[in-house]
Amino acid sequence: MASSNLTDTNNPSPLVAARSLPPDQISPKDVLYRISQIKYVFLRNWKLLVILTALGAGIGFIYDALHKTRTTYTGSIMFNLGGGSSGNGFGELGQLAGAFGLSSGAPDANIFVGDNFLIYAQSRPVVEKTLMKHDTIHGKDTLLVNYYIRHSGIRDREWEENDSLRAFYFKKEKKPEEYTKMEQLAMADIYARIKGEIAIKQPERKSSFMELSCFMEDELLTATFLSRHLKTIEEDYQKKQTKKTREMYDMLNTRADSLARILSGTENQLAQFMDQNQQVVVAQARIKENKLTRNSTFLTTLYYQALQQADNMRLSLIRETPLFTIIEPVTLPLFREVLGTQGLQIGTALSFILAIIIIFIRETYRSIMKEE
C-alpha cells in the first residue's frame, strides 16, 4: 500500500516514533544551557552583587563596633549526694539511686527524686535563698544579690532604660513575702537572667555524681554564687528530707522539758513537806509523803525515758541527714570567653541573599521585555 511506503524524514527508523517532551519537563540539554547562562548573568550584575554585599557587611561592622562584647566566666562544681537513710528498705543506696532517677521503680512524687531534683535545684525559691545570703567578698560582708546587681551586667542590659532599677539595691536580707513591689520586679528580672546562666546535670548516666555549673560576667561572682548555691541546696534539702524526724525530735524535747519542770515542782513539794513534818507520825501525813514520793519516782522514770527517746531520735536524725560531698570544687581562674556580636557575618549573609533576589527579579523582568 502507498501508505506503507511513506517514511518519516525526521525519524530514520520506522520502528521508533518521534516523541516530544511534555511542556512541564526540560531536557538535560536545556539544563546545561541554563547553567552556562549563569556566568553571563553574573557578568551583567556583578557590580550590583558586590555593592549590596559590601553595604550589608558595612552595616554589620558598624553594629559590631557600636555594641560591646560580653566577657563571661564559666565555672562548675561536681558533687555527690549520700549519707542519709531513706527508710524504704534499700538504705543509702536506695536513696541515692532514687534522688537521681537511677531506680527502676515507678516515678516518685518526692521533689528530690529523678528529674524533680534537677528542676528543684534551679527553682526560683532556692535561687532567691542563695541571693539573700551574706558572703565575704573582697574582705567585706556583702549581700550576694546586691553584688550580682553591680557585677552581672543586668544594669547595662535589662535595666539600661529604667533609672529606678539602675539605682536599686536590697537594703537587707528578706523573705519573698516581705518584698516591696520594686523588690519583686527586680528579683523577677534577676531570676529570669540567672535561669539562663545556671545548669545542673548528670555528667555520666551510670554515675551518681551531679555537676552544677554557671557562667556570669564576673569571675568572683561566678565562683561565689556556685559555692553559695550548692550550700543553699544542701541546707534546704536536709531540712526538707528530715522534716518529720525533726518535728518528732522537737516534740520529745518539749516533752522532756515539761516533765523536768513538773518533776522539779514535785521534788520541791516533797522536800518542803519532809522538812516541815520530820517528827510527825500521823498516818495521813505519811500517806501524803508516800504520794509525793511515788509521783516523784514516776515522773523521774518518765523524764529519763523522754531523754532516752529524744537522744535516739537525735541519732536517727543524724543518720537520715543527706550528705553533700564535693568531688571537684570550683577553682580559680575560671574559663574566660569573649562573646562578640555577629553583625558582620549576619549582615553579609543577608545582603548577599537580598542581592540574589534582586538579580533574579531583574533578570526575569529583562527576559519578559525581550519577549515582548
From TrEMBL:
Keywords: Membrane, Transmembrane, Transmembrane helix. Residues 1-13 have a biased composition (Polar residues). This is Lipopolysaccharide biosynthesis protein. InterPro entries: Bact_polysacc_biosynth/exp. Residues 1-21 are annotated as: Disordered. It comes from Spirosoma telluris. It comes from the Bacteria. The chain crosses the membrane at residues 48-66, 343-361. PANTHER family: CAPSULAR EXOPOLYSACCHARIDE FAMILY, TYROSINE-PROTEIN KINASE.
